[in-house]
Design a protein that fits this description.
Blueprint (H helix, E strand, L loop, with lengths): L2 H22 L10 H14 L6 H35 L5 H16 L2 H12 L3 H25 L4 H8 L4 H35 L7 H10 L3 H29 L1
Helix pairs in contact: 3-6, 3-8, 3-10, 4-6, 5-6, 6-8, 8-10, 9-10
Length: 253
């Protein structure tokens, strides 16, 4: 098969999927030109631009912000520990264990946080614990997969030399492997923490704690001035975490 034919085939598949996507869903383009829709949107933004800054409401939002941050920090930390543990376990791996681990990680990361939260609500009920567990499960699957890929790409020449010199696997892992890849592991973890902040803000929609819970409640009551306050707080929180994470990643790399 020639390179030209391969490129043509790839382009054809992409165009086929794109065209099929347009025909498979009902996109009502006429609604974009409906004046009433734009008037309703303008009315929404006019209310949205008047955030509720009362002390009582700001206090409630502040404590829920702390709860959201705590959910993301705890879930990311334990997912990091889980990923490190999986990587250490691979030092004493077998073919069966690798297949089992990959299957587990694929299961964890293939199910979104929101679906995990809905499943865990049956066991743990409403509240931040359910949201934290949902974030932990999904993040464990992602970090576990990333950590394994990083571990597999480590050059093996130095390890063989150290084994010949009489070092055991645990000593090599602690003093050679982990110091070599730890900055990269921490960089990926910080990036996932950024994502978990956003996810934790949404999980409250299904009753799993955090800012999403009060956001969904006020949206349901059409209290857009309170919704504006919550979204502003989420934006500031995400912006702060993004800059903090970027600073740490820059220092590490």
């Amino acid at each position: 098969m020639s390179i030209f034919f391969q490129k043509f085939l790839i382009l054809f598949i992409i165009l086929f999927l794109l065209i099929t996507s347009f025909f498979s869903i009902n996109l009502n383009w006429i609604e974009l030109f409906n004046l009433n829709n734009w008037i309703n949107l303008f009315s929404f933004f006019s209310e949205f631009m008047q955030p509720n800054l009362s002390y009582e409401f700001i206090s409630d939002v502040f404590f829920l912000t702390i709860e959201t941050l705590s959910m993301s920090i705890i879930s990311t930390f334990f997912a990091f520990i889980f990923g490190i543990s999986i990587m250490i376990f691979l030092e004493f791996k077998s073919t069966i264990s690798i297949f089992t681990i990959n299957s587990l990680l694929n299961l964890l990361r293939s199910i979104p946080e929101l679906i995990w939260a809905l499943i865990l609500l049956v066991a743990f009920g409403l509240g931040p614990f359910t949201g934290t567990m949902a974030l932990f499960l999904h993040t464990s699957g992602i970090l576990g997969k990333l950590f394994i890929d990083i571990y597999k790409n480590i050059p093996r020449d130095n390890k063989v030399s150290l084994l010949v010199c009489g070092n055991n696997q645990i000593r090599i892992l602690l003093y050679q492997t982990l110091p070599l890849i730890f900055p990269q592991l921490l960089s990926y973890t910080l990036y996932r923490w950024e994502n978990n902040i956003r996810a934790a803000s949404i999980l409250g929609i299904v009753g799993a704690g955090g800012l999403g819970q009060i956001l969904y409640f006020n949206l349901s009551l059409f209290q857009y001035e309170k919704v504006a306050t919550i979204i502003i707080v989420i934006f500031i929180m995400v912006l702060f975490v993004d800059h903090l994470s970027f600073y740490f990643r820059k220092k590490l790399t």
